[in-house]
Amino acid sequence: MTTLLDLKSSVLRQVQRSQSLRSRREPPPTASSPLTHCPDPLPRRISEASVEFFERMNAILQKQENMMRAAQAECQRGACTVAPPQEHVDQAFIPDRISRTELDLLYEEAVYTVVNRVGVPSPEHVKSDDELFAYLRKVFDMGEEEHDIILQKVQEAKRASFSLRVSVMKAKNLMAKDANGYSDPYCMLGILVGQSPRETEEKKERKFSFRKRREKLEKRSSTKEVLPARCIQVTEVKPETLNPVWDEQFVFEIDDVHNDLLHLDIWDHDDDVSVAEACKKLNEVSGLRGMGRYFKQIAKSVRSNGSASSGSEENADDFLGCINIFLNEIPVVGYDTWFKLEPRSSASKVQGECHLILKLFTNQRDTTLSKKDTNVSIHKKLLSQILEYEHTHVKREPYNWNGQVSAPAWTVLTHHAVQTDLSPLQQAIIRWQCYSSHHRTQRVCYSLLLRLLRTIDAEWDPPAVRGDMERQLSDSFRLYTEHCLCLMKNMRQVFPCTSAAAITRYELMLRGIGYMQNMQAFKTVCPLRNELHLDITTAVKKGTAEWYESLIARYRPEDGTLEEQLKKLVQVIDAVCADVQRAQNIYNKLFYSAVKVDFFSISYRQLEKQAADDVNVAMERVCGTLEQESSRLTQTMGEIIFELFMSLKILKGFREFLPLKDAKMLALTGFHNWFKSSIHKWLQIVHDRSCDRIRIAVEADKLEPLQQAKHSSSAVEVTACFSQVREIWVQLAWPDSAGAFIFVTRLTDNFCSEAVCYSEMITRKIERNQLGRDHKSFTVQLCIALNNAEHVRVFLGNLPRDLDWQGVERAMEESCGVDGKEQVYKALNGQLFNMDLDLQREAKHLITLLTDKMLPELRRYIQHISLSPDSINNDDAVSPLMKYLQDTMVILTENLVKENLSRVLQSMWELLLRMILDAVTENRGVQVEFYNRFQYTVETLLHFFQAKGEGLSMEDMKSGDYKVLDEELRLNKCSSFELIEQYYLEKISHQKTLKHTRYGRISVKCYYDAPEQRLTVEILHAADIIALDANGLSDPFVIVELCPHHLFPMAKSQRTQVKLKTLHPVFDELFYFHVSPEQYRHRFACLTFIVMDYDWLSTNDFAGEAIAPLSDFCWPGRPNASPAGKSVQPVILHLSRSKPSEKPIMRMLDARIGDREAQEFVRRLKEIEKSMEEE
C-alpha cells in the first residue's frame, strides 16, 4: 500500500507541476528508427501523417469487430459446390490390391451367382443375364474370351442346392374353436413337391391340407413323390389364445426351387397327445398309408356336435386355416410379411393372418472360392471390387458419394448375399468394413458411414459375431478411428471453415466417431478403447501445437529488426485469434455435440500459452531497449506495440468462454505489465498526433457552420479526435488500478491542454480575421468560434463517465483506502475545473471582441438618449438603440447555441448597464425627466433581454450593476429632503449591523413622556474612545440632536460637558427634546450622538457617531414610552467613523448647487469629514 500511495503522490505532484499546452511544447520523437537515442529534440512537423495515424488506430480498434464479422460470415456460410481440400491419406491405411488370379476366381463366383439366381427380382434389379455379365466384365476388366471360358466352366459345374428357411413368427385374429372362447393353435408345415408343367394352371386353384381323406391319399402313386415325411414340421401348441406367438424357425431342403410349394396348416389342438412327439414318430413312418394313419391319430380332433358318428375322420371346426406359397414367387430377398389364412374348402370358415419370414439360400456351391474361403470373406471381396469400380465412375462430387451403386451391381450383390445366406448383421458388418476401408483411400460421404454404423447397431447380436468376424470388425473400428484422429490433428488444413463442404463433412465425421464410441458393438469388440475422448483430446492438442509451429515457421518472427519482429508477431497473434474465434464459433459446437469434447478449451489453452511465451520474450527485448538512456519510441514502433497489445487483449478476451475452473491461471493473465513502460511513451505519441490534428483542423476551418449545426468543421474534428483517443483507452481496458490512475490522469491532462490549445488557436484566428470584415460577417464567425469552444467543453464534460473515473476511484479505494479515492477525485476534477476556467476565459475574450466591436454604436445610441430633449417621446429616444439591438439579436440567435447566447446577452446587458450608469453619473443634478427617460430605457432593455422567457432571467439581470443603477436613478429622482431622509435611513440600518468597533461605544438611556410629548435622553458614559491628542488621550464631549433637521426645525442640538484627558468618560447628563407623534412616526426620525474631542487652539476633532431611531423609544407600547420608562436598561451604541463623501447621496446633494437645504446638509458633513482628514 505504501508503494501505491507513493505512486499516487508522485502522479499528483506531476499533475500539479504540469503546465498548460500554451507553454508546454514537447518535441516529437524522430521517425528515423524505432528506438533512437536523440540528445537534441527535433522541431514538430505538422503533416497529413497525423490524419493517417488516427486512421490506422481506427483500423486497429475495429480489428476485433472485423474479426467477429468475418467469423459470423463463416458461420452463415451457404451451400458450396467447391470440393473441400484433399483429406490426408496415410500409406499404412491403404490395403493391398487383389491379384489377377484372385480376381478370376472372384469373377467365377460372381458369374455363378448370376447363373443360379432364384426368386422374384425387385423392380430395381436387372433381369437380363447378358446385361449383368456385361457389367461384371467392366468391373473385373475381363475380356470376352476369358468371360466365355469362365461362363462355360460355371455352366458345367453342379448347380447350386437351395434350402428354404421358414420363420413362423405369430398369428392374429384366429377363430375360437373351444368352449372357453379361445383355441389352442399350432402349425404344421411342409414342402409339396413340384407339379408337372401341364398342371401349372391348376396348382393355384388346388387347396392342400395335411388331413386328406384316406381315399385321396391312396390315389397317389408314391409317397416320396407327393409328400415326403422329412418335409413335415410342426410348431408348439399355444394354449388358449387367438393371437399366438411362436417365433420358431425351420429349414427345408428344396429339390425343385422353381416348382415346389410351401404349405402351412393351423389347427386347434384338443387331445393330450404331444404334437412334437407325434411328429417325430411320423417322420419314422415310410409309405403314404402308414404316414396317413399316424397323422390322423395325432392331428384328428373330433368335437361332438350331436350328429357326427364315431367313424367320422374329420371335423371342419378343428381347422383354423392354411397358407400355400409357391417358392418361385418368393422375392430374392425373401418374405417378411403377414399372410392371410385361406379355407380348405368352401365349407371351411377361417379368419386371421399369420406372420412368416421366408428366405431361400444355397447350401452347396460348386465354385473354387466357396470351397476354400468363407462366404463372408468372398462377399467382402466382391463388394470391395464393385465399390472401387462404382466410385471411379461417379462424375459429380465424388468426395460426397453416398455409396449408392448401379442396378447391375445391386442385383449381383443382393443375389450373392441371399445365396450365401448372409444375415442382415453380417451384411451390415461387411458393408461397413468395405466402405470404411475404401474411404481411407477414396473419401466418401460421412453420412454413409454413419448410416452403416447405425445399421450394425440396429442388427447387433453379440453371439452371432465371433472369431474372425469379431477380429475383423475390431480392426475396422481401430483403423477408422486412427484415420479420423489423424484428420482431427490436421483439421485446420483438411476441414477449413472457409469450405462449407469441408465443415459439413467434419461434422458428419465427428458424429460418426461419437456414435461409434457409444455403440454396443464397439464396446464389445474393442473393450480396451473405452476412453476415445482422451484420444481425441490428445489429437486436438497435438494438432494445435503443430499448427502454431507451422504459423511461426511461416512468419518467422525471430528474423529482422525489432520492429519487423513485432510486426510479424502481430500477424501471428491475429492468426491465433482468428483460429480461436473459429474454434469457439464453429469447431467447438461440432465437437461438443458429437463427441462431448470441449475443443475450444483444449485449443485455446494450448495456443494462449505458446503465444504468451513468444510475446513475453519479445516485449522483454523492447522494454530493455526503451529503458536505455535517451531512448525514444517512434510512432511506427508505438503503433505496432499498440496493435500487439490489442491483439493480445482480444486473445485474452476469449477466456470468458472457458469453464470457470479453467479460466484462473492463464499465461496472459498479467500481460499488460509487459507493456507498461511502452504505453506511457505511446500516450505521448498519441498526444503529439492529436495536437497536430487539431492544428490542421483549425487551419483548414473556414469558420462556416455545418449543416444542421452551429459549429464548424474544426470542432467536429477535435471531438472526433478526442473520441478516438477515448476509444483507445476504453479498448486498452487497463486492469491495474494504480496504472489506470496514472494513465487516466495523463489522458485527462492531455485532453484538457488540447482543448485549451484549440480554443486559443480559434481565438487567434478570429483576431486575425477581424480586420477588414463587416460587422455581420465578423459577428457570425465569432459566434461559430464560441460554439466551437462550447462544443468541445461539453464533450469533455463527459470525461468522468467516458474514462470511468468512478471505477478508478473504487479501485484506488480498495487498494489504498479512502485517502486514495480522495486524491483521485481531487486530481482529476482539479484538471477538469482548471480546463473549464481556461475555456471560459477564452470565451470571455471572444465575447469582449464582439462587445468591443459594438461599443461605438452603443455609445452613440446611449448619447442620443442622454441628449434627447424632453419634448421627444421616450420610445422615439430609445428606438435607435433597440433597433440596433434587435438586428444584433437576430444574428446572435441564428448563430449561437443557447449557452453561448446567454453568455453574450449577459455581457451585452452588463455593458449597457455600465454605459447607462456612466451617463447618469456624469449628469447628476439635472431635471427628473432625464432620469425617468433612462429608467424607461432600463425597463425596455429588461424586457428585450428577457425575450419572453427565452433570454436572460429577471433574477440574473436584476443583480450587480443593475441594483447600483436602479438605486442611482431612484435617488436622482428624489428631492433633497427625500435624499437626506434616505441618508438617515441608511445610517440607522448601518447602526444596527455594528457589533463591535475600534471607535468605542456610548451608553445612553432614552424614554418618552407621551402626555408631555417630551423625550428624555440620559447620556451615561462612553468607553474606548479613540485617542486624538498627543498625550494618547482625548477630551471628549457628546453632541446630541434630533435629525433630520427639516423634520425638527425647532429642535436645537445639545452637548455634554467636556471630560478631560480620558478615553472612558462618564457624563451622567440629562437632555430634553419636544417630539410630537407626527414626528417620531417617521422611520428616518432619529437621535444622533456625535462624540467630539475638544481642542483649545483649533477646531474640535470628530471621534465617532451613533444613531438611534426614535421608533425604539417613542412608539406606543414600547417600554421606554411608559411611565416606567425611567427604569429601563440603558442602550449601548457602537460608534462609527465613515466618510460621508463616499456615499452616492452625498454626491447627488453636492451636485444640487442651487438647493440651499442640500448645500447646508453637505456643508455640515464636509466639516466632519475635514476634521477626520486633519487627524
UniProtKB/TrEMBL annotation:
Q: Which biological process annotations from GO are given for this protein?
A: exocytosis; positive regulation of neurotransmitter secretion; regulation of dense core granule exocytosis
The principal location of this protein is cytoplasm
| Cytoplasm recorded as keyword | yes
Domain C2, chain residue ranges per copy? 143-302, 998-1123
> Where in the cell does this protein reside?
Cytoplasm; Late endosome; Recycling endosome
Quote the cellular component terms of the Gene Ontology held in the record: late endosome membrane; plasma membrane; presynapse; recycling endosome membrane; secretory vesicle; trans-Golgi network membrane
Q: Which domain of life is it from?
A: Eukaryota
Q: Which CDD domains match?
A: C2A_Munc13-like, C2B_Munc13-like
Which residue intervals define the domain MHD1 in the entry?
642-762
| Alphabetized Pfam families for the sequence | C2, MUN
Task: Cite the entry's keywords alphabetically.
Answer: Cytoplasm, Endosome, Exocytosis
Domain MHD2 per the UniProt entry, residue ranges: 875-983
One GO MF term: SNARE binding
Ranges for the region named Disordered are: 15-43
> What PANTHER family does the annotation carry?
BAI1-ASSOCIATED PROTEIN 3, UNC-13-4A, ISOFORM B
The entry sums up its family as follows: Belongs to the unc-13 family.
Protein name, per record: BAI1 associated protein 3
